[in-house]
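Example S7 (structure tokens).
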């Protein structure tokens, strides 16, 4: 499995740093063009462009310095060629001064918008941390890791969810995907996670736990009418692992099947019976509970469809079985990071969906 360049972030920062020098380069370039060429050649365009480019790239102080530099450079050239006292010279100098003032005004507007955007991002990040807190790294003989990544850059909120809870019945985990986006999806995810956390310690069976979560989400949808009630459904996989290890049980409610990795081999944990997602109010009977071997060294990888629906430029979907087969990892955190890097490499650009990942490794070593 290949990984993305770890220095990519530093490279982008270097590019941004060089871009911020562009107003200075334009200012110096305009001055040299004016000074080294005959009087009929003018660098006025450079003096006008430099402050306007500085407005979104620089701070208030930097924008002011570029604006003052443009006015000073133009005044110096006009004085050098004897035009500063003429009507044309005064008009040109006033135009550059006006452009510099407008650039400072634009800089302030952009600054206010940036502050509001940062505040919104901070609120979104706080909500996301509240909805999806970091799971414990160790529970008994198990090592655990989770990752969430939004499809849109700088977006920190969505409908993908996961949770891990140590219960009297064993280690219980859930991963799910709420249909939809935005705050309504987050609201539904909160209901699902709240029902899971409350019922996980009380319900003796995994099927009973799934039924409790199903009823909670259906009750939440009662405020909607008609078919809208069916649009807030959540696909999910619930897993229960006895603290002694050796076996895991799972219930799949319309979610992508998790993967089991062992000794370099990878296979899907397919459900024996397909069931409807949570919150549709159409599920009857007891959910099927499947049991799988989970010996020491095995790793359970749960994911949302943002992984398997990630496509490259040719439209080929990402196949985690093919990409992970034969690859060994030191632990669940390393597995998830390598998987995210490989998905990024596969898509080569933006994705269409969020990704939530949860990995549990059976590692009885102290």
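Recovered sequence:
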């Amino acid at each position: 499995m290949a990984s993305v360049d770890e220095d990519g972030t530093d490279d982008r920062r270097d590019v941004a740093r060089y871009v911020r020098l562009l107003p200075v380069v334009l200012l110096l370039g305009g001055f040299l063009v004016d000074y080294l060429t005959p009087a009929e050649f003018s660098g006025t365009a450079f003096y006008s462009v430099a402050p306007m480019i500085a407005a979104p790239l620089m701070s208030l102080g930097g924008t002011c310095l570029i604006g003052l530099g443009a006015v000073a450079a133009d005044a110096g050239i006009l004085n050098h060629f004897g035009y500063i006292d003429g009507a044309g010279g005064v008009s040109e100098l006033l135009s550059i001064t006006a452009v510099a003032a407008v650039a400072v005004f634009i800089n302030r507007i952009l600054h206010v918008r940036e502050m509001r955007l940062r505040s919104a991002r901070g609120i979104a990040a706080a909500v996301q941390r509240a909805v999806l807190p970091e799971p414990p790294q160790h529970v008994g003989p198990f090592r655990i890791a989770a990752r969430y990544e939004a499809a849109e850059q700088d977006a920190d909120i969505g409908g993908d969810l996961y949770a891990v809870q140590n219960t009297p019945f064993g280690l219980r985990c859930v991963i799910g995907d709420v249909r939809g986006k935005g705050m309504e999806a987050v609201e539904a995810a909160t209901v699902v996670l709240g029902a899971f956390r409350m019922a996980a310690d009380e319900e003796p069976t995994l099927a009973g736990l799934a039924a409790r979560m199903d009823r909670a989400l259906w009750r939440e949808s009662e405020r909607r009418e008609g078919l809208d009630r069916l649009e807030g459904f959540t696909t999910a996989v619930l897993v229960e692992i006895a603290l002694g290890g050796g076996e895991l049980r799972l219930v799949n409610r319309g979610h992508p099947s998790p993967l089991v990795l062992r000794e370099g081999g990878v296979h899907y944990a397919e459900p024996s019976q397909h069931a409807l997602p949570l919150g549709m109010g159409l599920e009857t009977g007891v959910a099927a509970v499947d049991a799988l071997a989970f010996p020491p060294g095995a790793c359970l990888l749960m994911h949302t469809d943002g992984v398997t629906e990630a496509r490259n430029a040719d439209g080929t979907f990402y196949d985690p079985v093919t990409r992970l087969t034969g690859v060994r990892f030191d632990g669940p955190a390393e597995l998830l990071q390598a998987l995210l890097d490989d998905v990024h490499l596969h898509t080569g650009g933006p994705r269409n969906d969020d990704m939530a990942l949860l990995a549990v490794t059976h590692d009885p070593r102290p």
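Notes on this example. The chain has ten helices and eleven strands.
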